[in-house]
Amino acid sequence: MRATTCCVLLATLIYNAGCDNWQEWWTYDGISGPGYWGLMNPQWNMCSKGRRQSPINVEPDKLLFDPFLRQIHLDKHKVSGMLHNTGQSLVFRVDKDTKNHVNISGGPLAYRYQFEEIYIHYGTENQQGSEHHIHGYSFPGEIQLYGFNKDLYHNMSEAQHKTQGIVGISLMVQIGDTPNPELRLVTSSFDKVKFKGASTPIKHLSIRSLLPDTEQFMTYEGSTTHPGCWETTVWIILNKPIYITKHELYALRKLMQGSQEAPKAPLGNNARPLQPLHHRTVRTNINFHQQNNNCPTMYKEMHYKGR
Ligand SMILES: *[C@@H]1O[C@H](CO)[C@@H](O)[C@H](O)[C@H]1NC(C)=O
Ligand SMILES: *[C@@H]1O[C@H](CO)[C@@H](O)[C@H](O)[C@H]1NC(C)=O
Fold this sequence. Notes:
Layout: H1 2-16, H2 37-40, H3 46-49, E1 57-58, E2 64-65, E3 72-74, E4 79-85, E5 90-94, E6 103-106, E7 113-122, E8 133-134, E9 137-138, E10 141-149, H4 156-159, E11 166-175, H5 181-187, E12 199-205, H6 207-210, E13 217-222, E14 233-238, E15 242-244, H7 246-252, E16 283-284
The chain binds 2-acetamido-2-deoxy-beta-D-glucopyranose (2 copies).
């Protein structure tokens, strides 16, 4: 406990001294782990105080069918970028000089969002990995596509702490024999980003082709799952997993948190623990009612008449 207080204090001091290297500090375990993110940096206080946080466990029998949710639109064309081992996660970011950005709109979104980055979360064992859980089940991995609100903001760093700033599209990753071919473009580069700080280019990636073949999704309002946990994220969880092979997962599990000289621990298990729902609604475009299930719905049998 004393070591913790001391570290937090030290971190605060460094922050106050104008340390601009904050991205380096946090981890997924120990005294810089998720329980302390909110204490490490005043700008991250939502990580401990927030009540609309992510990830969450999605309970299928508590989903609310919303007939007004539209289809999600994501542009087809390909983008190029860099895959980074940040020491905390595996992150793909589109090239800064990209001219033809991939737009995300529709679904629950009131604005047009510009796709910007992919975060890859995974476990070192098959029983865990995804940040969001479905009915208490954790998938071996989760791929999160982040975009920022292009109608209101200039870039991700501006949008992430502003209202309606971000969209997160969540793809659950399951182990299978027929892997997602687009994912292969990413997985084939894993061996080039084995250590922290390593990055490698990935060219002509179609974000749209990464998506599973479904129009069904769940959506709720939450936060980024990494610091500063800003409650500016509209989450969209697609209702089908995409597949990764055992072999690809094996390559992923070889990545390390540290450098070649000091590799530290494996990069996996980079999932923030589940956050309480606190009376939020998780909506879906899946019409359980039509499928003769007894699920909550926004369709009402009762009508009010105005005069
Ligand atoms: C994406 O949105 C931008 C405006 O933010 C627009 O200029 C561009 O044409 C859109 N791209 C496509 C492929 O529709
Ligand atoms: C993001 O946009 C803001 C506002 O225009 C600007 O001040 C800032 O420098 C930009 N940041 C990056 C990383 O481009």
